[in-house]
Write a structure and sequence with these properties.
Alpha-Beta Plaits; eight-stranded mixed β-sheet; globular; ATP-binding; Ribosome biogenesis/translation initiation ATPase RLI
Length: about 600
């Protein structure tokens, strides 16, 4: 039995805590050697010697900043280490196996090594196999993988026989490298496969071809990055979170593009948190599990359906490994027992609304929302969803019509998160400024929001050092713990994994029910919307030109109308209840279209 000891040095503050991890260590007290001590190499912060540690857990419990994790691991798992970032740092075990002419989907929590694995498979990072005292080499990598399925891949990669195209996770970085340039010129420049017209058609790029890169929105940047990746002539394609910033219609277009335009006889990896998307585009699924920021382990390869089902059930049969305590299931909206009857205790009412912003016009049907209700909002980007939320929040006034919410206290999480908008440096300080009581461990808000979202683990972190997923959860928590009459959340699922998406959904529903306040949620993740909301608003129109928002209605009916417009059908999996997209032209697709049941709820 081996062990992993990690210390989050961003959280560790020995000058503030009195180093109880060292003072209370039983090895330090009773043995002639140390299991943990301060190190000059770590700027005076502690180092844990894993071969001396007995994993008693005292230092873990005593650390006031929750910076220490110690986990016992089986010896056979320890032998599969592929990379470690340093002493008391994250460790990665195993890698997904490349399969030629198959799309391998990677599914798992943030901080479990998915991007690290992609960097290794792309050749950007040479793995060290846990050996920290010498530089990693390609020769040693080949020696370690000799006799395995990975040897042939890395041998070709390191000899230059494999060309890799890597669509990075954070597409915002594209503007740092490509500061100027017209979209069409860039697409034409990188069109090595001669599929320029097809890429433009499938990804619906027509309205952005004349734009300069520096003016593109997040969704437009994402589509540009995907388009260029597909145009390149390579042997390995890696798409890291390609659905981020894309609306439902754009995700469907992306599914079709990856299915029809993907090169043959190559390796393709797709990392994403949208289960419906992976279920549609992936042939195989590899699941990442472990403890975020401590260690990550890659499972065996499963078929797409089986892998996703095992992931939701929280048990991997081949590994005989339980990766989650509870199973994720989906309950039909019509059978939910916690929904308050529509019409009781109306909180917000709006008349028919009209708003003109520049060349864009928005018209929204009249509607009302009751106490404790969660309203989902879906539709294409640039059709007025955020504008409607801003009208409810009182940020802008409608040209025609009225809303009752400006007289109410609003708590609003915007779509684009700015660290500069926060007037403090530490997560804990920021949350205290919003609601000090919510940070008391006995308070229900601490349990239902702070702890449920895992924000308790980042309370001592600086806002500037939060990852994209951590920043999203911080803003969601900050919004939900605020005392308000109405809660408005714009794209709360961006950059967070499936577990956190469902945790956000549960927290949203809990806030709505406990405080008897309405919550509006704009999101493009059908899974989260299906899981969380009571009624649904659908927006349609011509992006950037005009938008039309429908009144809140029954989820199944709204989904059915929306899916009919985008010409896809969705069924529920009989075992898990999760929504699944039918392949176009399949028996189920034709049957549901014939019956008019584009969203099959049974």
């Amino acid at each position: 039995m081996g062990r992993i000891a990690t210390i989050d040095y961003e959280l560790c503050q020995p000058n503030k805590c009195g180093i109880p991890c060292i003072r209370f260590c039983p090895i330090n007290k009773t043995r002639p050697y140390k299991a943990i001590e301060l190190s000059s190499e770590k700027q005076g912060k502690p180092v844990i010697y894993e071969d001396k540690c007995i994993a008693c857990g005292i230092c873990v419990k005593k650390c006031p900043f929750k910076a220490i994790h110690i986990i016992n691991i089986p010896t056979e798992m320890e032998e599969k280490i592929v990379h470690r970032y340093g002493v008391n740092a994250f460790s990665l075990y195993g890698l997904p196996i490349p399969v030629e002419n198959e799309v391998v989907g990677i599914l798992g929590p943030n901080g479990a090594g998915k991007t690290t694995a992609m960097r290794i498979l792309s050749g950007f990072l040479i793995p060290n196999f846990g050996i920290l005292d010498k530089e990693p080499s390609k020769e040693y990598v080949l020696e370690k993988f000799r006799g395995t399925q990975l040897y042939d891949y890395f041998n070709k990669l390191y000899s230059g026989k494999i060309k890799v195209v890597y669509k990075i996770q954070y597409i915002e970085a594209i503007q740092a490298y490509v500061k100027q340039g017209i979209v069409y010129d860039l697409l034409k420049k990188f069109d090595e496969r001669g599929i320029l017209k097809e890429v433009i058609d499938y990804l619906n790029l027509g309205n952005m071809l004349s734009k300069n890169v520096k003016t593109l929105s997040g969704g437009e940047l994402q589509k540009l990055a995907i388009a260029i990746a597909l145009e390149r002539d390579a042997n390995t394609y890696i798409f890291d979170e390609p659905t981020a910033f894309l609306d439902v219609r754009e995700r469907i277009n992306l599914m079709k593009a990856l299915t029809e335009l993907r090169p043959r006889n190559c390796y393709i990896f797709i990392v994403d948190h949208d289960i419906m998307f992976l279920d549609y585009v992936a042939d195989l699924i590899v699941i990442t599990y472990g403890v975020p920021s401590v260690f990550g382990y890659f499972s065996k390869t499963y078929s797409a359906k089986a892998g996703i089902d095992y992931y939701l059930k929280g048990f991997l049969p081949v590994e005989n490994m339980r990766i989650r305590e509870e199973q994720i299931t989906f309950k039909l909206h019509d059978t939910r027992d916690d929904v308050i009857a529509i019409g009781e205790g109306d909180v917000i009412f709006w008349s028919q609304l009209f708003k003109k912003l520049g060349d864009f016009e928005l018209l929204v049907e009249e509607g009302k929302v009751k106490k404790g209700e969660v309203i989902g909002i879906i539709g294409p980007n640039a059709t007025g969803k955020t504008t409607f939320i801003r009208i409810l929040a009182g940020e802008i006034e409608p040209d025609k019509g009225y809303v009752t919410s400006p007289s109410l206290k609003i708590s609003y999480k915007p779509q684009y998160l700015s660290r500069d908008s926060v007037n403090c440096t530490i997560v804990k300080e920021c949350l205290k400024d919003v609601n000090k009581a919510a940070l008391e461990e006995s308070n229900w808000l601490y349990i239902e929001v702070i702890k449920r979202l895992g924000v308790d683990r980042i309370l001592e972190k600086e806002i500037e050092k939060l990852s994209g997923g951590e920043l999203q959860k911080f803003f969601v928590a900050k919004t939900l713990i605020k005392e308000a009459d109405v809660y408005l959340l714009d794209e709360p699922s961006s950059h967070i994994d499936v577990e956190d998406q469902l945790s956000v959904a549960r927290a949203i529903k809990r806030i709505a029910r406990m405080r008897k306040t309405p919550v509006f949620v704009i999101d493009h993740n059908i899974l989260l919307i299906d899981y969380a909301v009571d009624r649904l608003m659908v927006f349609r129109g011509e992006p950037g030109v005009k938008g039309f928002g429908m009144s809140p209605t029954v989820v199944s009916r709204a989904f059915n109308n929306f899916l009919k417009e985008v010409d896809i059908t969705v069924r529920r999996d009989p075992e898990t209840g999760r929504p699944r997209i039918n392949k176009p032209g399949s028996y189920l697709d034709r049957e549901q279209k014939t019956s008019g049941q584009y969203f099959y709820t049974i």
